[in-house]
Amino acid sequence: MGSTTVALHNMLVIDFSNKDLKLGSHVWASTCGQIRFGLEEYGCFIAKYDEILSNNEVDTQIFCKSKDLFDLPIETKMKNNSEEPFRGYIGQIPQAPLYEGLAIDRATSLEEVRKFVDLMWPNGNDHFCDIVHLYAKQLASLDEMATKMVFESYGVEKHWETVKVVRNHVLRFLKYTEPDQDSSTVIRFAAHRDLNFTTILHQTQVGGLQVQARDGTWINVHPKPSQFLFLAGDMMKAWSNDRIRACYHQVSLSATHGERYSMGMFTFTDGEIKVPEKFVDDRHPLLYKSFDNRKYVRFYVTDEAKKTKDPIKAFCGV
User: Fold this and answer.
1) Any idea which of 1-15, 110-124, 152-166 has the lowest mean pLDDT?
2) What does the pLDDT look like over 14-45, one tens digit per residue?
3) pLDDT tens digits, residue range 221-246?
4) Are the CB atoms for 135 and 64 separated by under 8 Å?
5) DSSP 241-259
6) Residue ranges of the domains in the chain?
7) How far is CA 175 from the centre of its chain?
8) Which homologous superfamily does the CATH classification assign to the domain defined by 5-316?
9) Bridge-partner residues for 104, per DSSP?
10) What global pTM score does this model have?
């Protein structure tokens, strides 16, 4: 058996549902290398993961539930608040007038999902709770497998357990409203890099997600069944001592496509993380001091961070 990776639309598609993808196998080793290439070249890759589709069409149900969620009154949605920046409800903001999002912190915990559901539906919504919790656990499993393989690809797997135990997942429901004007193309969410370690984005039917190549061109990520965009954030870039790119991405869509729903699983680290010694040598001097993901997110919203072109370098650069 060869590699489980093929080229598609200038992107890499990696099949995590391949039955031959087993620890220690040739396919496993080959796939580790392809994941590394995708993250170094694009800051992302497309993950094919049939596990979610195999559970009673969870992906279809999760988007139906997402529509139900966003149909709730604004006063209800605003109860989803947080002291942490970029968590909880985000909407009605001038910088992104077409965007609205709600989040469940530590979404792999059934208790945390229930807290969110009880907040949105005081009379209960067990089906929403069950579907969302299952979906979050499945995305977390994909994230864990892919991230572990990144560590293995660089030969720093001894550091994996240290990072694994401090990871937590934020599941965000995303909605992009249809613009009023009839312009041919509208940027519904501006180009940015994520502030966390890794992100998994899921879109179906209506696309619009784009990632930026090294030459500055934008690559369309077309929605397909059981495919997810796995991308590196600023924290993974810093952890790898700049070997991995933090992926620039945006949502750009024709006004005629109407509303767009998508999902995002954002994986953060709690506590201090540092660059592995193996990433530092004469050709690759240390670029980052040890860093804390939560502190970085708080720094990102300060006036100091807004004045710099590269907030991660300003935050923990050597």
Assistant:
1) 1-15
2) 999 999 999 989 999 999 999 999 999 999 99
3) 988 888 999 999 999 999 999 999 99
4) no
5) TTSSPPPPEEEEE-GGG--
6) 5-316
7) 15
8) B-lactam Antibiotic, Isopenicillin N Synthase; Chain (2.60.120.330)
9) 171
10) 0.93
Classified as helix, coil or strand, 260 is strand
Give residues with Cβ within 8 angstroms of 315, minimum separation 6. Answer: 291, 295, 296, 299, 300, 305
The answer to whether the CB of 35 falls within 8 A of the CB of 70 is no
Which amino acid is residue 17, in one-letter code? Answer: S
Question: Under a CB-based contact definition with an 8 Å cutoff, are residues 210 and 189 in contact?
Answer: no
64, 173 Cβ separation under 8 angstroms? no
Under a CB-based contact definition with an 8 Å cutoff, are residues 263 and 171 in contact? yes
Q: Which amino acid is at 227?
A: Q
Identify whether the C-beta of residue 228 lies closer than 8 Å to the C-beta of residue 201: yes
CA angle 112, 205, 136 (to 5 degrees): 15
